[in-house]
């Protein structure tokens, strides 16, 4: 799974997974991820699809350093995240990994602009005001900077989460069902914002999704089944993706 996409042929990988396994212990251990290796080229936009329970969220959490694999290696940029202490990993994540959740995860009492600034404030870094304003404009939030999350639509809230993830110019942005809570039209618009902003910045993005229209925006779609990478499509159409998902039993 190491062959790079046509859009980033010469770039080194932004994220490199080598034989990653994740087993949840218990009376009946769950082998959620079973030996996944992949290299995501810098600047690439990758979708991860697969039936419910196939390990997509687990894989993304491991790649983000939010969860620890049972075995295998994960490199973000040139840093092997398994070698970092818990504190160092937290700091590393703030600077190098942007995460967008389905549920937005915004802080209710902070304004839009303070939510966007939060990871950098926590990392004791001062965002460049010009870059912050450009990003707010790029995701279509100009004029809404002083609102609280409770005063936003779902689509606007997810744009805040996207701007927050992009602000530190992380090595990779990982998004788990980012449009899952939005109606189809709003979801398409929000995804377009993420795709276009990321493309302009050369930002590496990985999106977990059930929606073939969302996945069709990607350079490459990876298909997981039962914890294994079983297929991939480059520059896919909605129809090709739908056919693969049906073949996998969704
Ligand atoms: N914390 C956990 N403890 C035990 N088992 C877990 C845990 N998290 C996930 N699993 C199991 O691991 C497997 C993979 O789950 P995961 O959430 O990664 O799948 P998914 O492909 O993202 O599913 P969905 O599309 O339904 O969100 C499932 O069998 C799930 O029940």
From TrEMBL:
<protein>
    <submittedName>
        <fullName>ABC transporter ATP-binding protein</fullName>
    </submittedName>
</protein>
<keyword id="KW-0547">Nucleotide-binding</keyword>
<dbReference type="InterPro" id="IPR017871">
    <property type="entry name" value="ABC_transporter-like_CS"/>
</dbReference>
<dbReference type="InterPro" id="IPR003439">
    <property type="entry name" value="ABC_transporter-like_ATP-bd"/>
</dbReference>
<feature type="domain" description="ABC transporter">
    <location>
        <begin position="15"/>
        <end position="249"/>
    </location>
</feature>
<dbReference type="InterPro" id="IPR015854">
    <property type="entry name" value="ABC_transpr_LolD-like"/>
</dbReference>
<dbReference type="InterPro" id="IPR027417">
    <property type="entry name" value="P-loop_NTPase"/>
</dbReference>
<dbReference type="Pfam" id="PF00005">
    <property type="entry name" value="ABC_tran"/>
</dbReference>
<dbReference type="InterPro" id="IPR017911">
    <property type="entry name" value="MacB-like_ATP-bd"/>
</dbReference>
<keyword id="KW-0067">ATP-binding</keyword>
<dbReference type="InterPro" id="IPR003593">
    <property type="entry name" value="AAA+_ATPase"/>
</dbReference>
<keyword id="KW-0813">Transport</keyword>
<dbReference type="GO" id="GO:0005524">
    <property type="term" value="F:ATP binding"/>
</dbReference>
């Amino acid at each position: 799974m190491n062959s790079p996409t046509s859009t980033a042929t010469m770039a080194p990988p932004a994220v490199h997974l080598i034989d990653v396994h994740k087993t949840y212990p218990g009376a009946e251990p769950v082998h959620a991820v079973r030996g996944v290796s992949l290299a995501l080229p810098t600047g690439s936009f990758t979708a991860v699809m697969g039936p419910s329970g196939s390990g997509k969220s687990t894989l993304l959490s491991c790649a983000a350093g939010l969860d620890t694999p049972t075995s295998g290696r994960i490199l973000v940029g040139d840093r092997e995240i398994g070698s970092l202490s818990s504190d160092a990993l937290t700091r590393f994540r703030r600077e190098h990994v942007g995460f967008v959740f389905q549920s937005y995860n915004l802080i209710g009492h902070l304004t839009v602009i303070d939510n966007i600034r939060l990871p950098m404030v926590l990392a004791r870094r001062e965002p460049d005001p010009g870059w912050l304003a450009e990003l707010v404009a790029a995701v279509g939030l100009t004029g809404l900077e002083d609102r609280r999350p409770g005063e936003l639509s779902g689509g606007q809230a997810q744009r805040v989460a996207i701007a927050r993830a992009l602000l530190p110019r992380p090595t990779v942005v990982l998004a788990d069902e980012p449009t899952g809570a939005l109606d189809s039209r709003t979801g398409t618009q929000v995804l377009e914002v993420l795709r276009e902003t990321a493309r302009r910045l050369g930002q590496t993005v990985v999106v977990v999704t059930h929606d073939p229209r969302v996945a069709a925006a990607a350079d490459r779609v990876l298909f997981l089944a039962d914890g294994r990478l079983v297929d991939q499509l480059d520059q896919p159409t909605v129809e090709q993706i739908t056919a693969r998902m049906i073949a996998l039993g969704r």
